Amino acid sequence: MDNFKAPEPADSKLHFLDYWRIIRIRKTVIIAVFLLVVITTTVVTYMLPETFMSYTKMKVEKDTSDVPLLGQIAPSGPPDPFFLQTEFEVIQSKTNLYKVIEDLDLNRRWSKDHLAQGTLKTAETFEILRDRIDVRQYRNTTMIEIRVYSKNKAEAAEIANKIAQVYRDSRVYERERMAERGIAKITEELRTQQSKVDRMQEELDQLKETNRITDLMMDSWSQGTLEADVVRRTDSLKTQTKQQLARVQSTLKRLKLLTSERLRNSLPTISPGETLLMDLLQREAIARQEFLAMSETLSLNHPDVVRATNLLSLLDKQIEERIQGIMEGLETQVQAFNTELEQLDADVKAAKDEDLRRASQYRDYFLKKRKVENEKIMLDVLSRKLAQEKFDSAIPRQTLVTITDPAEEGLKPVRPNIPLNIAFGVIVGLVVGVGLAFFIEYLDTSVKTIDDVERSLQAPVLGVIPQNVGSLLDEGPESPHAEAYRVLRTNILFTRKDETFNTITIVSGGAGEGKSTTLFNLAVIFAQNGHRVLVVDSDLRRPSMHKFFKVSNSLGLTNFLLGQNSLEEVIQTTHLKTLDFLPSGKLPSSSMGILSSQQMKDLVAEVKRRYDFVFFDSPPIMGVSDAVVLASEVDISLQVIQYRKYPQAMTIRAKQMVSKVGGYLVGIVLNNINMSQDENYYYYSGYYYDYYQSRNKDEDGKDKDKDKAETKKNGSGEMSRIDLKKKY
User: Fold this and answer.
1) What are phi and psi of 581, to 5 degrees?
2) Degrees (nearest 5) of the Cα angle 38, 39, 42?
3) Please, are residues 480 and 695 in contact by the beta-carbon 8 Å criterion?
4) CA–CA distance from 186 to each of 70, 191, 390, 452 (Å)?
5) Each residue's pLDDT tens digit, 496-517
6) What is the pLDDT of residues 95-132, one digit of tens each?
7) Which residues neighbour 165 within 8 Å (Cβ) at sequence distance 6 or greater?
8) Contact indicator for 667, 497 with CB cutoff of 8 Å
9) pTM for this structure?
10) Options 3.30.1660.10, 3.40.50.10490, 3.40.50.300, 3.10.20.310; which CATH number does 452-702 get?
């Protein structure tokens, strides 16, 4: 038959309650780890020796003098973190601390605390001392704090003050040494430069005498040579002459293109200073007017007309001659300008040649003179620098390091910090405990939730059984645990495919999962509901069902299967009329495979016909074949899984073994659930437990225990509510 497969649940994200469930379940681990860490921390804290701390504060500045030099700007703005970090390292350097060790004789003083005999080496003492100091900066300031820790509070203050003092003295001493080295180097360079300038000056004077260069020539050359002035002036004249030549040539060219009449009208405007031409033109105009006036009244032969005509001819001839003279004058100007340009070019060339000659003659002198002047400038710079350094070195620099707060003896020890250590232990204990709990939970692959079962086994969970469940025959039908089995019975009835399926076995992957208890109580619930029920103890390896019924196991199933007794002889009845029991009997060692015999199949068929429901107890299915045989012969199989006991792989394997032999596994029963710790299962059976508990509290004590008193007391005074007898 095909097994029922539950739909795979959708993946869900972890809720806060899931984490809280893990914490509640693993609270023992968390509390144990927490207490272990806290107690260990507390004990170690109280065992640690007391340590005192002394500190000194210093104001540390860059390399500046107490009095700013002329033109020097005092530093401003935030402190340089790189400078302060460098000073931290300098304070803790070997150069500084070795001096402290030497001055305080720490090699000898600490030897008795760290060596059985002998004296510490300076390198060893340095490592010890460096571990005891802590250098810090006050934020946004140039203040540095040096903290020293020691078991002796006086020693802590002494070392802190000595470190600050050695650092301050080393800063001042190093600055003085730097100044001395700088002054010595500058003095040496100054002497060398002075010798060089003197030698070059002698060479310059000798060159001056050889070339016969006078001071007057030097002055003129310093202001510029005569030839250079000539060249500049001549170039200026050439430019002006070229402009004038171009203007005259342009005018002459345009005048030659004009007619005689237009030339007469144009010349007066071109040459406004030409008064003679202007006078002739005016006289001609007057004579022409007179001629025209006389020609209207007089004949051409009239003496006055003839005289006027001759005057006009004379004036016209004079005007033409004057115009010709002006044109010739313009041409003469063009020739003169060309001649002047040629002369200017010759003058420029001569001046340049002379300048080149003199420059070639005096080049060595002036080059040497320029070098001498440059060397004198360098000499002057060195002289000024030397004077400045000497003055600067003479100014005190006590403000490089200022000890503002000398170290004093500590009033109380700073280590161990008992409240802080214990608080830290509490936090670490909680973190480690919770972390270990979650780690253990991660490693735990056993069944934890219904979702785990349905996801891994693909089978529904039909019932959830709480912890500490005993025999329901002893607890009675009103037991709060009975409701969990009633829920299981109801789910089985609704889950089976056929109403004729009435033979049931309960299997488990490993021993101790509560398989026999679950089967017994489930059978009791069926019987209390009015069904005729038979419980067969078919666990022939380790039979235990007879202990629930409190009877002997000497006669039972094995006797019937071996043909030694009839079925009526081995079945026993109980105080509950609808519940019968078939013990396992004694199993001969030669008949281990008796459950797979034909007699067993006939027995299953016979009891299936006689009873409404038959329950077969079985051994664990892993490693024993009997449970597999029973699962294949009965109608219905249930698998019991104990909460948080075996890995899921075992439960999956057990379910697969039932499926391989054709068994019909209707579902899973989760057993031994702690309802007080795991709220995930409370709503499956915890509600009924609370309900019945509250109801029992409201009932009268005598009425509540009446039935128990009647059934537990027998004639000999023993407590037993089960009255077993032979049915046949």
Assistant:
1) -140, 135
2) 85
3) no
4) 21, 9, 10, 88
5) 888 889 999 998 888 888 888 9
6) 999 999 999 999 999 998 888 788 899 999 999 999 99
7) 403
8) no
9) 0.49
10) 3.40.50.300
